[in-house]
Protein backbone atom coordinates (compact mmCIF):
# COMPACT_ATOMS: atom_id res chain seq x y z
CA UNK A 1 0.00 0.00 0.00
CA UNK A 2 1.19 3.57 -0.59
CA UNK A 3 1.14 5.51 2.66
CA UNK A 4 2.40 8.82 3.95
CA UNK A 5 3.40 9.72 7.49
CA UNK A 6 2.98 13.44 8.17
CA UNK A 7 5.24 14.59 10.99
CA UNK A 8 8.39 12.53 11.41
CA UNK A 9 9.39 13.08 15.03
CA UNK A 10 9.73 10.56 17.86
CA UNK A 11 6.42 8.91 16.96
CA UNK A 12 6.17 9.47 13.20
CA UNK A 13 9.67 8.46 12.12
CA UNK A 14 9.61 5.07 13.90
CA UNK A 15 6.09 4.55 12.56
CA UNK A 16 7.30 5.32 9.02
CA UNK A 17 10.12 2.76 9.23
CA UNK A 18 7.72 0.22 10.72
CA UNK A 19 5.30 0.72 7.81
CA UNK A 20 8.19 0.18 5.36
CA UNK A 21 9.29 -2.88 7.31
CA UNK A 22 5.85 -4.51 6.92
CA UNK A 23 5.97 -3.96 3.16
CA UNK A 24 4.38 -0.61 2.36
CA UNK A 25 5.77 2.10 0.13
CA UNK A 26 6.17 5.04 2.47
CA UNK A 27 6.71 8.75 2.09
CA UNK A 28 7.48 10.70 5.26
CA UNK A 29 6.57 14.39 5.32
CA UNK A 30 8.63 16.45 7.74
CA UNK A 31 8.43 20.24 7.81
CA UNK A 32 11.80 20.71 9.53
CA UNK A 33 14.24 20.70 6.57
CA UNK A 34 17.25 19.61 8.66
CA UNK A 35 15.37 16.68 10.20
CA UNK A 36 13.93 15.74 6.79
CA UNK A 37 17.34 15.72 5.13
CA UNK A 38 18.92 13.65 7.91
CA UNK A 39 16.12 11.07 7.72
CA UNK A 40 16.41 10.89 3.92
CA UNK A 41 20.12 10.18 4.29
CA UNK A 42 19.43 7.36 6.73
CA UNK A 43 20.66 9.33 9.76
CA UNK A 44 18.51 9.18 12.89
CA UNK A 45 18.03 12.70 14.31
CA UNK A 46 17.45 11.18 17.78
CA UNK A 47 18.20 7.90 19.48
CA UNK A 48 15.43 5.34 19.67
CA UNK A 49 16.27 1.68 20.17
CA UNK A 50 16.45 -0.20 16.82
CA UNK A 51 15.29 2.78 14.78
CA UNK A 52 18.41 3.70 12.81
CA UNK A 53 18.97 0.15 11.48
CA UNK A 54 15.54 0.06 9.87
CA UNK A 55 15.88 3.64 8.64
CA UNK A 56 19.12 2.78 6.87
CA UNK A 57 17.68 -0.42 5.42
CA UNK A 58 14.51 1.10 4.02
CA UNK A 59 15.91 4.41 2.73
CA UNK A 60 18.50 2.30 0.89
CA UNK A 61 15.88 -0.11 -0.50
CA UNK A 62 13.85 2.85 -1.82
CA UNK A 63 10.74 1.76 0.04
CA UNK A 64 10.99 4.80 2.32
CA UNK A 65 11.71 8.40 1.39
CA UNK A 66 11.18 11.78 2.97
CA UNK A 67 10.02 15.15 1.73
CA UNK A 68 9.06 18.56 3.07
CA UNK A 69 6.43 18.85 0.32
CA UNK A 70 2.95 17.80 1.41
CA UNK A 71 1.70 17.88 -2.19
CA UNK A 72 4.12 15.08 -3.09
CA UNK A 73 2.56 12.95 -0.35
CA UNK A 74 -0.99 13.84 -1.41
CA UNK A 75 -0.20 12.73 -4.98
CA UNK A 76 1.61 9.57 -3.91
CA UNK A 77 -0.35 7.97 -1.06
CA UNK A 78 -3.84 6.59 -0.50
CA UNK A 79 -3.58 6.57 3.26
CA UNK A 80 -2.08 9.41 5.32
CA UNK A 81 -0.98 9.01 8.91
CA UNK A 82 -0.97 12.20 10.99
CA UNK A 83 1.83 12.05 13.56
CA UNK A 84 2.63 15.71 14.23
CA UNK A 85 3.26 17.03 17.73
CA UNK A 86 0.74 18.03 20.40
CA UNK A 87 2.85 19.60 23.14
CA UNK A 88 1.25 20.60 26.41
CA UNK A 89 0.29 24.27 26.34
CA UNK A 90 2.47 26.59 28.41
CA UNK A 91 -0.49 27.36 30.72
CA UNK A 92 -0.96 23.62 31.31
CA UNK A 93 -4.56 23.82 30.07
CA UNK A 94 -4.60 21.03 27.53
CA UNK A 95 -2.62 20.23 24.41
CA UNK A 96 -1.63 22.75 21.78
CA UNK A 97 -3.49 21.34 18.78
CA UNK A 98 -2.10 23.77 16.20
CA UNK A 99 0.12 21.24 14.39
CA UNK A 100 -2.70 18.70 14.00
CA UNK A 101 -5.26 21.21 12.79
CA UNK A 102 -2.78 22.76 10.36
CA UNK A 103 -1.61 19.40 8.99
CA UNK A 104 -5.19 18.32 8.19
CA UNK A 105 -6.18 21.75 6.91
CA UNK A 106 -3.21 21.75 4.51
CA UNK A 107 -3.59 18.15 3.37
CA UNK A 108 -7.31 17.95 2.63
CA UNK A 109 -7.51 20.43 -0.30
CA UNK A 110 -4.53 18.69 -1.94
CA UNK A 111 -6.25 15.30 -2.12
CA UNK A 112 -7.36 14.48 -5.66
CA UNK A 113 -8.84 11.01 -5.14
CA UNK A 114 -10.50 9.04 -2.31
CA UNK A 115 -8.14 8.77 0.65
CA UNK A 116 -8.05 7.80 4.29
CA UNK A 117 -6.57 10.11 6.91
CA UNK A 118 -5.47 8.20 10.00
CA UNK A 119 -4.75 10.29 13.09
CA UNK A 120 -2.08 8.93 15.42
CA UNK A 121 -1.17 12.01 17.46
CA UNK A 122 -2.40 12.19 21.04
CA UNK A 123 -5.21 14.72 20.99
CA UNK A 124 -7.69 16.39 23.24
CA UNK A 125 -11.04 14.60 23.44
CA UNK A 126 -13.32 16.28 20.87
CA UNK A 127 -10.63 16.89 18.25
CA UNK A 128 -11.88 14.38 15.69
CA UNK A 129 -15.15 16.27 15.44
CA UNK A 130 -13.20 19.48 14.66
CA UNK A 131 -11.12 17.70 12.03
CA UNK A 132 -14.20 16.13 10.43
CA UNK A 133 -15.65 19.63 9.97
CA UNK A 134 -12.46 20.69 8.16
CA UNK A 135 -12.73 17.67 5.86
CA UNK A 136 -16.42 18.31 5.19
CA UNK A 137 -15.71 21.92 4.32
CA UNK A 138 -12.44 21.66 2.38
CA UNK A 139 -12.29 18.28 0.58
CA UNK A 140 -12.43 18.67 -3.20
CA UNK A 141 -13.26 15.00 -3.79
CA UNK A 142 -15.68 12.52 -2.21
CA UNK A 143 -14.66 9.73 0.17
CA UNK A 144 -11.99 11.44 2.21
CA UNK A 145 -12.34 9.36 5.36
CA UNK A 146 -11.08 10.11 8.85
CA UNK A 147 -9.95 7.42 11.29
CA UNK A 148 -8.74 7.96 14.83
CA UNK A 149 -6.04 5.42 15.59
CA UNK A 150 -4.26 6.41 18.83
CA UNK A 151 -0.70 5.32 19.41
CA UNK A 152 0.17 3.58 22.69
CA UNK A 153 3.85 2.98 22.08
CA UNK A 154 6.33 3.28 24.89
CA UNK A 155 9.12 5.68 24.13
CA UNK A 156 12.38 3.74 24.07
CA UNK A 157 10.51 0.81 22.50
CA UNK A 158 8.90 2.77 19.67
CA UNK A 159 9.99 0.48 16.83
CA UNK A 160 9.16 -2.76 18.59
CA UNK A 161 5.80 -1.42 19.80
CA UNK A 162 4.96 -0.16 16.29
CA UNK A 163 5.65 -3.58 14.79
CA UNK A 164 4.00 -5.58 17.54
CA UNK A 165 1.59 -3.42 19.55
CA UNK A 166 -0.58 -4.80 22.38
CA UNK A 167 -3.61 -3.84 20.30
CA UNK A 168 -4.67 -1.53 17.49
CA UNK A 169 -7.58 0.79 18.21
CA UNK A 170 -9.36 2.46 15.32
CA UNK A 171 -12.29 4.84 15.64
CA UNK A 172 -14.06 5.11 12.29
CA UNK A 173 -17.44 5.50 10.64
CA UNK A 174 -17.33 3.88 7.18
CA UNK A 175 -16.60 0.63 5.40
CA UNK A 176 -13.92 2.28 3.26
CA UNK A 177 -12.12 3.42 6.39
CA UNK A 178 -12.38 -0.04 7.96
CA UNK A 179 -11.00 -1.74 4.87
CA UNK A 180 -8.11 0.73 4.66
CA UNK A 181 -7.18 0.10 8.30
CA UNK A 182 -7.41 -3.67 7.86
CA UNK A 183 -5.23 -3.49 4.76
CA UNK A 184 -2.52 -1.24 6.16
CA UNK A 185 -2.17 -3.27 9.36
CA UNK A 186 -2.71 -6.71 7.77
CA UNK A 187 0.85 -8.02 8.40
CA UNK A 188 0.60 -6.99 12.07
CA UNK A 189 -2.91 -8.42 12.48
CA UNK A 190 -1.60 -11.67 10.96
CA UNK A 191 0.70 -11.94 13.98
CA UNK A 192 -2.35 -12.15 16.21
CA UNK A 193 -2.51 -8.51 17.31
CA UNK A 194 -6.12 -7.58 18.12
CA UNK A 195 -7.93 -4.85 16.19
CA UNK A 196 -10.46 -2.95 18.28
CA UNK A 197 -12.90 -1.14 16.01
CA UNK A 198 -15.01 1.60 17.49
CA UNK A 199 -16.29 5.11 16.84
CA UNK A 200 -13.94 8.13 16.88
CA UNK A 201 -14.99 9.65 20.24
CA UNK A 202 -14.48 6.28 21.94
CA UNK A 203 -11.03 5.95 20.35
CA UNK A 204 -10.09 9.38 21.70
CA UNK A 205 -11.25 8.51 25.21
CA UNK A 206 -9.45 5.13 25.10
CA UNK A 207 -6.12 6.88 24.59
CA UNK A 208 -6.66 9.50 27.29
CA UNK A 209 -8.02 6.89 29.70
CA UNK A 210 -5.04 4.58 29.11
CA UNK A 211 -2.58 7.39 29.87
CA UNK A 212 -4.59 8.46 32.90
CA UNK A 213 -4.79 4.92 34.24
CA UNK A 214 -1.04 4.35 33.93
CA UNK A 215 -0.42 7.63 35.74
CA UNK A 216 -2.98 6.63 38.36
CA UNK A 217 -1.07 3.42 39.03
CA UNK A 218 2.23 5.24 39.48
CA UNK A 219 0.58 7.92 41.59
CA UNK A 220 -1.15 5.30 43.71
CA UNK A 221 2.08 3.52 44.51
CA UNK A 222 3.85 6.85 45.10
CA UNK A 223 1.12 7.71 47.61
CA UNK A 224 1.60 4.32 49.28
CA UNK A 225 5.38 4.97 49.31
CA UNK A 226 4.63 8.05 51.38
CA UNK A 227 2.66 5.94 53.84
CA UNK A 228 5.51 3.41 53.98
CA UNK A 229 7.95 6.16 54.89
CA UNK A 230 5.79 7.12 57.88
CA UNK A 231 5.57 3.59 59.24
CA UNK A 232 8.91 2.11 58.14
CA UNK A 233 7.32 -0.31 55.67
CA UNK A 234 8.75 -1.39 52.30
CA UNK A 235 6.83 -0.16 49.26
CA UNK A 236 8.57 -2.51 46.82
CA UNK A 237 7.28 -5.45 48.82
CA UNK A 238 3.80 -3.89 49.03
CA UNK A 239 3.73 -3.38 45.23
CA UNK A 240 4.86 -6.94 44.61
CA UNK A 241 2.43 -8.50 47.05
CA UNK A 242 -0.65 -6.60 45.92
CA UNK A 243 0.33 -6.97 42.26
CA UNK A 244 0.21 -10.75 42.50
CA UNK A 245 -3.56 -10.33 42.52
CA UNK A 246 -4.37 -10.32 38.81
CA UNK A 247 -7.15 -7.79 39.30
CA UNK A 248 -4.42 -5.36 40.40
CA UNK A 249 -1.30 -6.51 38.53
CA UNK A 250 2.18 -5.23 39.29
CA UNK A 251 2.95 -3.73 35.83
CA UNK A 252 3.65 -0.01 36.05
CA UNK A 253 3.55 -0.12 39.84
CA UNK A 254 7.05 1.05 40.68
CA UNK A 255 7.32 4.20 42.75
CA UNK A 256 9.48 7.00 41.45
CA UNK A 257 9.61 10.13 39.38
CA UNK A 258 7.84 8.09 36.63
CA UNK A 259 5.07 9.60 34.53
CA UNK A 260 5.35 12.78 32.49
CA UNK A 261 2.88 15.65 32.99
CA UNK A 262 1.47 15.17 29.49
CA UNK A 263 -0.01 11.86 30.47
CA UNK A 264 -2.78 13.21 32.67
CA UNK A 265 -2.82 17.01 32.74
CA UNK A 266 -4.60 17.52 29.42
CA UNK A 267 -7.32 14.99 30.19
CA UNK A 268 -7.84 16.45 33.67
CA UNK A 269 -8.33 19.88 32.18
CA UNK A 270 -10.65 18.58 29.46
CA UNK A 271 -12.96 16.59 31.75
CA UNK A 272 -13.23 19.73 33.90
CA UNK A 273 -14.32 21.71 30.84
CA UNK A 274 -16.87 19.04 29.99
CA UNK A 275 -18.30 19.22 33.51
CA UNK A 276 -17.59 15.58 34.41
CA UNK A 277 -17.30 16.41 38.10
CA UNK A 278 -16.26 13.07 39.59
CA UNK A 279 -13.73 12.36 36.85
CA UNK A 280 -12.31 15.83 37.32
CA UNK A 281 -11.97 15.44 41.09
CA UNK A 282 -10.36 12.05 40.72
CA UNK A 283 -7.88 13.06 38.02
CA UNK A 284 -7.00 16.29 39.84
CA UNK A 285 -5.87 14.21 42.82
CA UNK A 286 -3.81 11.95 40.54
CA UNK A 287 -2.30 14.95 38.78
CA UNK A 288 -1.33 16.57 42.06
CA UNK A 289 0.36 13.42 43.40
CA UNK A 290 2.14 13.14 40.05
CA UNK A 291 3.28 16.76 40.37
CA UNK A 292 4.67 16.10 43.87
CA UNK A 293 7.02 13.35 42.78
CA UNK A 294 9.95 15.70 42.09
CA UNK A 295 9.67 17.41 45.53
CA UNK A 296 9.44 13.91 47.07
CA UNK A 297 12.66 12.92 45.28
CA UNK A 298 14.40 16.07 46.53
CA UNK A 299 13.30 15.33 50.10
CA UNK A 300 14.77 11.84 49.75
CA UNK A 301 18.04 13.19 48.35
CA UNK A 302 18.37 15.68 51.22
CA UNK A 303 17.63 13.00 53.79
CA UNK A 304 20.22 10.72 52.22
CA UNK A 305 22.78 13.49 52.18
CA UNK A 306 21.97 14.47 55.75
CA UNK A 307 21.07 18.09 54.96
CA UNK A 308 20.78 20.74 52.26
CA UNK A 309 22.60 20.05 49.05
CA UNK A 310 23.71 23.55 48.05
CA UNK A 311 27.36 23.61 47.05
CA UNK A 312 27.38 19.83 46.60
CA UNK A 313 28.41 17.92 43.50
CA UNK A 314 25.84 15.32 42.51
CA UNK A 315 26.66 12.58 40.02
CA UNK A 316 23.42 12.49 38.06
CA UNK A 317 22.86 9.26 36.13
CA UNK A 318 20.24 9.63 33.40
CA UNK A 319 18.31 12.63 32.10
CA UNK A 320 16.39 10.89 29.29
CA UNK A 321 12.61 10.65 29.56
CA UNK A 322 13.03 6.89 29.66
CA UNK A 323 15.76 4.33 29.01
CA UNK A 324 16.02 3.63 25.26
CA UNK A 325 15.51 7.18 24.00
CA UNK A 326 17.47 10.43 23.79
CA UNK A 327 14.26 12.44 24.31
CA UNK A 328 14.39 14.87 27.25
CA UNK A 329 11.11 16.71 26.58
CA UNK A 330 8.92 16.60 29.69
CA UNK A 331 11.54 14.33 31.26
CA UNK A 332 11.01 14.02 35.03
CA UNK A 333 14.71 13.16 35.39
CA UNK A 334 15.75 16.40 33.73
CA UNK A 335 13.22 18.35 35.84
CA UNK A 336 14.83 16.87 38.94
CA UNK A 337 18.34 17.88 37.79
CA UNK A 338 17.05 21.41 37.21
CA UNK A 339 15.49 21.59 40.68
CA UNK A 340 18.73 20.37 42.28
CA UNK A 341 20.69 23.04 40.42
CA UNK A 342 18.20 25.68 41.60
CA UNK A 343 19.00 24.59 45.13
CA UNK A 344 22.68 25.32 44.58
CA UNK A 345 23.96 21.82 43.77
CA UNK A 346 26.03 21.04 40.69
CA UNK A 347 24.67 18.06 38.80
CA UNK A 348 27.31 16.24 36.77
CA UNK A 349 25.33 14.47 34.09
CA UNK A 350 25.99 11.17 32.42
CA UNK A 351 23.39 9.60 30.13
CA UNK A 352 24.20 7.03 27.44
CA UNK A 353 22.16 8.86 24.78
CA UNK A 354 20.72 12.14 26.07
CA UNK A 355 23.83 14.23 26.84
CA UNK A 356 23.69 16.29 23.65
CA UNK A 357 20.00 17.16 24.13
CA UNK A 358 20.59 17.96 27.81
CA UNK A 359 23.66 20.09 27.14
CA UNK A 360 21.73 22.12 24.58
CA UNK A 361 19.19 23.07 27.27
CA UNK A 362 21.66 23.33 30.16
CA UNK A 363 25.19 24.21 29.14
CA UNK A 364 25.80 25.23 32.77
CA UNK A 365 25.57 21.67 34.15
CA UNK A 366 28.65 19.47 34.48
CA UNK A 367 28.96 16.58 32.01
CA UNK A 368 30.87 13.31 31.98
CA UNK A 369 31.68 10.76 29.28
CA UNK A 370 31.08 7.75 31.50
CA UNK A 371 29.20 6.90 34.68
CA UNK A 372 32.55 6.38 36.43
CA UNK A 373 33.72 9.85 35.44
CA UNK A 374 30.46 11.43 36.68
CA UNK A 375 30.78 9.66 40.02
CA UNK A 376 34.41 10.69 40.56
CA UNK A 377 34.61 13.13 43.49
CA UNK A 378 30.81 13.49 43.73
CA UNK A 379 29.19 14.00 47.13
CA UNK A 380 26.45 11.54 46.27
CA UNK A 381 24.99 9.68 43.28
CA UNK A 382 21.43 10.09 41.99
CA UNK A 383 20.05 7.47 39.60
CA UNK A 384 17.22 9.09 37.63
CA UNK A 385 16.76 7.07 34.41
CA UNK A 386 16.71 3.28 34.48
CA UNK A 387 19.33 2.56 31.79
CA UNK A 388 20.51 -1.06 32.11
CA UNK A 389 24.11 0.11 32.30
CA UNK A 390 23.27 1.71 35.67
CA UNK A 391 20.91 -0.94 36.96
CA UNK A 392 22.21 -4.20 35.51
CA UNK A 393 26.00 -3.74 35.41
CA UNK A 394 27.21 -5.93 38.28
CA UNK A 395 30.63 -4.22 38.23
CA UNK A 396 29.46 -0.61 38.59
CA UNK A 397 29.03 -0.51 42.40
CA UNK A 398 32.51 -1.94 43.02
CA UNK A 399 34.37 -0.04 40.29
CA UNK A 400 32.98 3.28 41.50
CA UNK A 401 33.06 2.70 45.27
CA UNK A 402 36.44 4.42 45.78
CA UNK A 403 35.77 7.24 43.31
CA UNK A 404 32.93 8.94 45.19
CA UNK A 405 33.27 11.08 48.34
CA UNK A 406 30.38 9.38 50.15
CA UNK A 407 29.05 6.05 49.04
CA UNK A 408 25.42 7.18 48.90
CA UNK A 409 23.19 6.09 46.03
CA UNK A 410 19.75 7.69 45.76
CA UNK A 411 17.62 5.70 43.32
CA UNK A 412 14.59 7.85 42.49
CA UNK A 413 13.16 5.15 40.21
CA UNK A 414 13.31 2.30 42.78
CA UNK A 415 14.99 0.31 40.07
CA UNK A 416 18.32 -1.04 41.36
CA UNK A 417 18.73 -4.29 43.19
CA UNK A 418 20.54 -3.00 46.31
CA UNK A 419 22.57 -6.21 46.98
CA UNK A 420 25.70 -5.45 44.86
CA UNK A 421 25.74 -1.82 46.02
CA UNK A 422 25.53 -2.80 49.69
CA UNK A 423 28.27 -5.39 49.16
CA UNK A 424 30.52 -2.65 47.74
CA UNK A 425 29.94 -0.45 50.79
CA UNK A 426 27.21 1.87 49.49
CA UNK A 427 24.11 3.15 51.27
CA UNK A 428 21.06 2.76 49.04
CA UNK A 429 18.11 5.14 49.35
CA UNK A 430 14.85 4.49 47.51
CA UNK A 431 11.38 5.98 47.79
CA UNK A 432 9.11 4.36 50.37
CA UNK A 433 11.82 2.06 51.71
CA UNK A 434 14.04 2.23 54.73
CA UNK A 435 17.58 3.31 53.84
CA UNK A 436 19.72 0.23 53.33
CA UNK A 437 23.21 0.32 54.74
CA UNK A 438 26.11 -2.07 54.17
N1 LIG B 1 6.91 10.19 21.42
C1 LIG B 1 6.17 9.16 21.84
O1 LIG B 1 6.67 8.18 22.39
C2 LIG B 1 4.67 9.15 21.63
C3 LIG B 1 3.92 8.03 22.02
C4 LIG B 1 2.55 8.02 21.79
C5 LIG B 1 1.95 9.14 21.24
N2 LIG B 1 2.71 10.23 20.91
C6 LIG B 1 2.04 11.38 20.32
O2 LIG B 1 2.47 11.49 18.99
C7 LIG B 1 2.49 12.86 18.58
C8 LIG B 1 3.85 13.22 18.05
O3 LIG B 1 4.78 13.15 19.11
P1 LIG B 1 6.33 13.23 18.88
O4 LIG B 1 6.96 12.89 20.17
O5 LIG B 1 6.69 12.44 17.67
O6 LIG B 1 6.51 14.80 18.55
P2 LIG B 1 7.74 15.48 17.80
O7 LIG B 1 7.67 16.92 18.15
O8 LIG B 1 8.97 14.69 18.08
O9 LIG B 1 7.41 15.30 16.26
C9 LIG B 1 6.48 16.04 15.55
C10 LIG B 1 7.11 16.32 14.19
O10 LIG B 1 6.13 16.82 13.30
C11 LIG B 1 6.73 17.81 12.48
N3 LIG B 1 5.64 18.62 11.92
C12 LIG B 1 4.83 19.51 12.53
N4 LIG B 1 3.90 19.99 11.69
C13 LIG B 1 4.13 19.40 10.49
C14 LIG B 1 3.49 19.47 9.23
N5 LIG B 1 2.42 20.25 9.02
N6 LIG B 1 4.00 18.72 8.22
C15 LIG B 1 5.05 17.92 8.42
N7 LIG B 1 5.71 17.82 9.59
C16 LIG B 1 5.24 18.53 10.64
C17 LIG B 1 7.65 18.53 13.42
O11 LIG B 1 8.67 19.24 12.73
C18 LIG B 1 8.22 17.35 14.24
O12 LIG B 1 9.38 16.81 13.65
C19 LIG B 1 2.08 13.65 19.81
O13 LIG B 1 0.70 13.88 19.75
C20 LIG B 1 2.41 12.71 20.94
O14 LIG B 1 1.65 12.98 22.10
C21 LIG B 1 4.05 10.25 21.08
TrEMBL record:
Pfam family, one: UDPG_MGDP_dh_C
GO MF annotation: an example: oxidoreductase activity
Catalytic activity: UDP-alpha-D-glucose + 2 NAD(+) + H2O = UDP-alpha-D-glucuronate + 2 NADH + 3 H(+)
Pathway the protein takes part in: Nucleotide-sugar biosynthesis; UDP-alpha-D-glucuronate biosynthesis; UDP-alpha-D-glucuronate from UDP-alpha-D-glucose: step 1/1
Enzyme nomenclature, EC number: 1.1.1.22
Signal peptide: none
Span of domain UDP-glucose/GDP-mannose dehydrogenase C-terminal: 315-418
Keyword vocabulary terms for this entry: NAD, Oxidoreductase
Family statement: Belongs to the UDP-glucose/GDP-mannose dehydrogenase family.
UniProt name for this protein: UDP-glucose 6-dehydrogenase
Source organism phylogeny: Bacteria, Bacillati, Actinomycetota, Actinomycetes, Streptosporangiales
Amino acid sequence: MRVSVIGCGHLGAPHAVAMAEIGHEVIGVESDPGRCEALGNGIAPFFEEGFEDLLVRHTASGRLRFTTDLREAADFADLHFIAVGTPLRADGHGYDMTQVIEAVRSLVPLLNRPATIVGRSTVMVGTVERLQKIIDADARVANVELVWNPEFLREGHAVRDSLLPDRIVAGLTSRQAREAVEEVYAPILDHGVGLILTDPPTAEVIKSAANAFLTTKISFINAIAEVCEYVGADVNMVAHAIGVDRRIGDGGMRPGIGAGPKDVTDFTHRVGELGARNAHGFLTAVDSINADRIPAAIRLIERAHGGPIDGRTIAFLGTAFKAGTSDVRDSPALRLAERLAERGATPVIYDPEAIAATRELHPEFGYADTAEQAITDADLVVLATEWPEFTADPELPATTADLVRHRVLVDVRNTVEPGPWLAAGWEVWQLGRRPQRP
